[in-house]
Amino acid sequence: MNRTQAHRQHPPNAKSTHETMVDGHVTITELEKVYESGDERTTAIEDFSVTVPSGEFLGVVGPSGCGKSTLLYLVAGFLEQTTGTIAVDGDPIDGPGTDRGVVFQDYALFPWRTVMGNVTYGLEEKGVGKEERRATAQRFIDMMDLDGFEDKYPKELSGGMKQRVALARTLAYDPKILLMDEPFGALDQPLRESLQDHLIDIWRDLEKTVIFITHDVEEAVYLSERVLIMTRHPGTKKTTVGIDLDRTQPREELVLSDEYTATKNDVWQSLREETTPGGER
Amino acid sequence: MCGNRFGKKRRPEENAERMSYADFRLETVVETIPNPLRRIVRFAFEWIPIAIVAGLWELASGTAVSSEILPPPSAVFAVSWELLVSGRILPHLQVSLYRIGVGLGLSIVVGVALGVGMARVKPIENFFEVFLALIYPVPKAALVPLAILWLGVGTETAILIVFLACLLPIVLNSYNAAQNVDRNLLWSARMMGMPAWKLPIKVVVPATIPSILTGIRQAIPIAFIALVSAELIASNRGVGFEILRHGQIGNYTSMFAVLVVISGTAFVAVRGYEWLERRVVTWT
Fold first, then answer.
1. What kind of fold does domain A2-9+23-99+176-275 have according to CATH?
2. Phi/psi at B267 (5° precision)
3. pLDDT in tens, A178-231
4. Per-domain residue ranges for chain B?
5. Do A153 and B206 touch (CB under 8 A)?
6. Are residues A155 and B193, on separate chains, in Cβ contact within 8 Å?
7. What's the angle, vertex CA B206, arms to CA B203 and CA B210, rounded to 5?
8. What homologous superfamily is domain B90-280 in, according to CATH?
9. ipTM value of the model?
10. SS in 3 state form for B4-38?
């Protein structure tokens, strides 16, 4: 809770004219996404509104096929909404932009580029000079414990390492908002946990706004300050649950604490209503 | 062993996987042999089938079949060797390789541009799709008389036929792959600030390279087929013309020998290409 307050010192609606550290405030208003193919109309997302203040870590859980990923790709600007608005720091978005960075579940690294080449990619597009590009990239490569692997190609890396490269690649061009689409979903438990802790540190140090999609309730509760639960088809916001945990304690104690168990149960109950057939809509 | 004689490259792990389904694997035997010998044994296994067929052919020639119409391989290989060593075939080989080089080169440039263009730009696809479907089943040799009409007898006609024959595998491979470029790769580039118009060059083409290389590998033997069929009709130089010339004067051993030279050259070309590919494109 105190973390969130620290991040909220800046008024959330203040439009930034310069690159301040604390912005990246997302407002989604009455969002609707309808897929049309031929005569068939499928509503993926309906009547969806949420405000994500600067620096918040928002977890999003929902039954499979509820449109979690669609939501994320709409915010990323990859897809276009049918109605409604998505605004970053008060400005409605218009397609993809470097203020937002996505981390995909399948890493989506460029196979023809080395680790270094992948991490410098966004900086190249920004027009950063070669020396500075490499220095910045090296900083994030080191941060993700990838030093020594700069000249490797993605095919030579394990899944966990690929995801670390993907994270370094996205962090390197310094987006204010991280959009994460089940980034650790394909990794095994120990690897997932270590990357989760790594992500919390990064989020704290770099003061990013994070929207983190997952189907894993424990992951959402462990990472997030607030968890948004989506309804089953069509996806809309069911409720949000604030997570108030004492994060100073190590993981092994935190996961055994009563607050953690209680919060996890709340989220799990709420989600279960959506996944159980005949459950409340 | 990398690749088989038809030029389809397999990765070692893919090879291992394939072999493991076979009931009898020579590889299990080969693996028991110490390393320096192992290479030689593998090489021997690769050529044993050829040796068997050549042996049967040698026996049949002059006994079951007249050596006039089926010259023995010993004679054929000897003449092939003589053609190369004396250099008599070299000017023809040079002309033919030049035609292949230019025709194949053009087909790579045009084929990749067309394939990627078709995959990413709907009007281009709509325009060319029907032409590809129509050209595909036409034997390229059937176009030689028409090509002679336009370009006359000679190099340009051979280049055109090689170009047309090679164009299809290259277009189809790059078209398919460019259509199926991982959406997340394109999105990744976009989120990092790449404007949409740059995507074809900066993302689609590199992502398509493995398939483009496959297309080129498939095109190399096709280039030789097209070349010879063009030179048989529309040339007074080149290896295809040499086959015809020796055939017409009844020198069948030489005719076979030229055929062996062509086949060997194509084999070396594919193997050389694969070798180069493995060293240049290391990221696939």
1. Rossmann fold (3.40.50)
2. -60, -50
3. 999 999 988 888 888 888 988 998 888 888 999 999 988 889 988 898 999 888
4. 1-60, 90-280
5. no
6. no
7. 140
8. MetI-like (1.10.3720.10)
9. 0.85
10. CCCCCCCCHHHHHHHHHCCCCCHHHHHCCCCHHHH
